[in-house]
């Protein structure tokens, strides 16, 4: 294997001496953000627990900075590796400040006395995750999202070389999700801290990760750059999706299209159709959309939600054949929704379609 900072070399992980996932061979460079994705119960946490020595490895080896992970003393490892796992801690009588301060313990003497510098690092870490106001609160009596932020602060003030997190965003609201991911990105890209984490939000994984590990079955099904992994069929197979869609271009999840015969025609384009498609889908109304250029943003969604889409090739005049087809299909519909799609020289025929819709008496404004 190449000279990687963190390596899983034919690693097998599992419980009670039985391998759940085997033959994991993955190399991670310093400062990379690597995200594990995969369905519930696929083994993401099991891998993370195994590479942080919380769980005994079944086979193979893990190397960290060219050293076998098992050869680190716990004290050495805790100055270099910060771990934020999902297991619920129930510490007695500890404030959030106390919990964050434990991140400094690998650096303090036996009595665990914090120097002024340690205290400053604790405060700084709490500020970074917007948790200053939680300092004096009992760690057992805060919300799940607040707990996640406090545990991240503890990891930050540990000043690790590598940080390993299990679903760090699961309880966070959108602002704190963005904050957390920005903090991790800054740690990785400015301080060259390596980040390995599992995420359920695949849209976020797509946006933050340098590499993605897909966990499925008894092995790693794919490992690579998000550009290669986030392909419609790959995500569909990974999660066995048969009741909706994932659009890798926008990272959006779509519910399945409404079933039944489509009696509604939507004349749209240039993004004007998207709110109409979403409304029709909520009403469970099947529809046909057109005439859409295949590079139109409306087309991206219509191909997933519409019963049929009448299309034209990008930057071409709408052909007579396409126009006639749209006219025929539209005439068979009971309702025509027309958005305020702009009409120009290329799509002049769309103007004619709108005129025909007006004359039909079936047109409503979308
Ligand atoms: N302590 C344990 N002993 C035995 N089996 C376990 C133990 N913990 C988890 N498992 C099993 O190992 C498999 C993988 O679990 P794991 O928690 O690693 O999955 P995951 O991908 O993290 O799931 P999720 O996305 O739901 O968090 C599951 O079938 C789970 O039931």
What does this structure look like?
With 366 residues, this protein is an alpha/beta fold. It is built from 13 helices and 17 strands. The protein has helices at residues 44-50, 74-80, 96-101, 116-128, 144-157, 174-191, 202-208, 226-229, 232-239, 274-282, 297-305, 320-332, 348-360; strands spanning 6-15, 18-28, 33-37, 59-64, 67-68, 81-84, 162-166, 194-198, 211-216, 219-224, 245-247, 252-254, 264-267, 287-293, 308-312, 335-338, 363-365. A six-stranded mixed beta sheet has the order 6-7-8-3-9-10, with helices on both faces. A five-stranded parallel beta sheet has the order 15-14-13-16-17, sandwiched between helices. Strands 2-1-4-5 form a four-stranded antiparallel beta sheet, with helices on one face. A hairpin with a 2-residue loop joins β4 and β5. α4 (116-128) packs across α5 (144-157), α10 packs parallel to α11 (297-305) and α12 runs parallel beside α13 (348-360). The longest helix has 18 residues, at 174-191. It is elongated, with a radius of gyration of 27 Å. The protein starts with 5 loop residues before the first strand and ends with a strand. The model has no long low-confidence stretch (mean pLDDT 92). The structure holds adenosine-5'-triphosphate. Residues 15, 20, 38, 40-46 line the site of adenosine-5'-triphosphate (ATP).
